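A.,

Following up on our hallway conversation. Structure tokens first:
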């Protein structure tokens, strides 16, 4: 028997224009929790997708239990007791939990209107046993479409266990969970380890690695930069290894200096296209110099609040004032002119003109004004100069500077471009919806600094984020939304992240 249950040797994988994995070698012991740490785009998912048979490496070999293997599909990997929980779950919505666990990873077609014959009674018994053994509470007869994200994740874990997986890969499993659900998941993982399973945990959250992992491999730009025992490694060292330079965690927030109310929202309600009330009687205010953050599990109405304030959706009732003026009936354009800047969640839909040059996109809100145009003529040199300023200030990486076509830039750099463009308006109210989603630590740090600078300048800031860490770090005031209602609004310093997590799950009083 080999000392290692999995070995990956000199693995290289290229995609057009990029080496996603460059000569990576890892050895994983049976029964350990092995973390893969790295920034977005470092190559973590690609590497593990090869162990799970979804891609084949261009070079290198994989050994399981000391024997070389070649996987052409995830079925091959499953046959070697390897399972994976993906970042995006692969469950079938209109099937029950039990059916999802029993059926293949690829949904089977119903034959003559029936599912292929399986002994569902026996299956249900096995599922019940597994769920009791590992503390994975589910109700097997629930439909997937009716259960929460955390339950879906448990189903994915049960699916692996049902297939007798011994090596379990988790790809960013906590990205979608509240703090309480994270605690629960880490307990489950610990239980799996005690039972002798081997766990590979992909994450960019260092805290989690500290809590659960035995060893940690750090990837950067497709290369393996270090493999260490977690016990001898500090959080700071991990962050520095991951980013490749010294990371400063401390950009202390200054004492707030709140001024008058900039935004007041009273009794706001919004209905979706099915006439369902997604925002219910929501009231709040944001003062100048204040960051008001809306926390909540995805899909509880938070983006609709942002859209309603920006004028992008019709509201069914309520009143919105900006700096003492009623803007309830104003168009998007009028609101922008009145001083609202908006960084949307879906960058590509509403944020950028992808086939335009970066320089034109950056000046999109300014081009009709001095100094960009005068006497009806657009001034090319001003566009270039301004674009170069923003590229430097916001660290926008682009191959051809101001002349880069936006479509060719990475998502993270497109996001930096929108944020730069909107912040430079220095509006009265800036709305950020998921401003750092998908960005790496360095870029996140930079954007947080910009947001805090706008706060110090005296702007009112509405922050919508699914990242609780981000909310706890930036907010002066937190409103927690659950099923369209603001369950609780309080100064950030009066709430812990666990408190916020409980409200996010709909617990009214704590
Ligand atoms: N199917 C694909 N086609 C082209 N490029 C890809 C594909 N999958 C990943 N990449 C690229 O490979 C790099 C590594 O991606 P990934 O493994 O997903 O990183 P991580 O999981 O660490 O965030 C990124 O630059 C990504 O854009
Ligand atoms: Mg990934």
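Then the amino acids I'd put at each of the 510 positions:
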């Amino acid at each position: 028997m080999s000392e290692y249950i999995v070995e990956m040797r000199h693995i290289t994988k290229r995609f057009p224009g990029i080496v996603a994995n460059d000569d990576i070698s890892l050895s994983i012991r049976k029964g350990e929790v092995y973390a893969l740490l790295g920034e977005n785009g470092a190559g973590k998912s690609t590497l593990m997708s090869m162990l799970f048979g979804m891609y084949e490496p261009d070079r290198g070999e994989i050994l399981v239990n000391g024997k070389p293997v070649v996987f052409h599909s995830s079925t091959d990997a499953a046959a070697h007791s390897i399972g994976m929980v993906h970042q995006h779950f692969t469950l079938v919505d209109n099937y029950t939990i039990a059916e999802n666990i029993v059926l293949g990873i690829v949904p089977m077609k119903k034959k003559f209107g029936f599912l292929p014959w399986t002994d569902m009674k026996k299956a249900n018994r096995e599922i019940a046993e597994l769920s009791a053994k590992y503390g994975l509470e589910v109700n097997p007869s629930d439909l997937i479409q009716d259960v929460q994200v955390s339950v879906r994740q448990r189903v994915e874990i049960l699916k692996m266990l049902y297939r007798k997986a011994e090596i379990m890969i988790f790809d960013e499993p906590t990205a979608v969970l509240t703090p309480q659900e994270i605690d629960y998941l880490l307990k489950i993982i610990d239980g799996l380890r005690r039972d002798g399973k081997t766990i590979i945990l992909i994450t960019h959250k260092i805290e989690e690695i500290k809590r659960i992992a035995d060893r940690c491999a750090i990837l950067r730009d497709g290369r393996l930069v270090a493999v260490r025992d977690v016990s001898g490694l500090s959080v700071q060292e991990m962050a520095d290894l991951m980013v490749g330079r010294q990371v400063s965690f401390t950009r202390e927030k200054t004492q707030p200096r709140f001024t008058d109310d900039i935004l007041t929202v009273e009794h706001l309600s919004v209905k979706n296209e099915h006439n369902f009330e997604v925002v219910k009687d929501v009231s709040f205010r944001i003062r100048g110099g204040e960051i008001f953050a809306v926390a909540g599990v995805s899909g509880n109405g938070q983006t609709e609040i942002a859209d309603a304030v920006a004028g992008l959706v019709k509201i069914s009732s309520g009143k919105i004032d900006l700096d003492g003026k009623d803007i309830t009936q104003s168009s998007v354009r009028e609101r922008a002119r009145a001083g609202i800047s908006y960084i949307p969640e879906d960058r590509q839909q509403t944020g950028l003109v992808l086939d335009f040059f970066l320089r034109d996109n950056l000046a999109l809100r300014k081009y009709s004004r001095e100094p960009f145009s005068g006497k009806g003529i657009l001034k090319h040199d001003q566009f270039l100069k301004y674009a170069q300023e923003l590229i430097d200030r916001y660290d926008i990486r682009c191959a051809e500077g101001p002349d880069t076509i936006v479509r060719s830039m990475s998502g993270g750099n497109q996001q930096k471009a929108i944020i730069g463009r909107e912040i430079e308006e220095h509006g009265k109210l800036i709305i950020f919806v998921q401003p750092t989603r998908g960005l790496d630590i360095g870029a996140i740090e930079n954007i947080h600094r910009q947001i805090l600078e706008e706060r110090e300048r005296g702007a009112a800031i509405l922050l919508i984020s699914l990242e609780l860490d981000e909310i706890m770090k930036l907010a002066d005031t937190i409103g927690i939304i659950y099923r369209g209602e603001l369950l609780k609004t309080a100064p950030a310093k009066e709430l812990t992240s666990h408190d916020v997590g409980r409200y996010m799950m709909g617990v009214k009083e704590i």
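The radius of gyration is 25 Å. Curious whether your intuition agrees with the design.

B.
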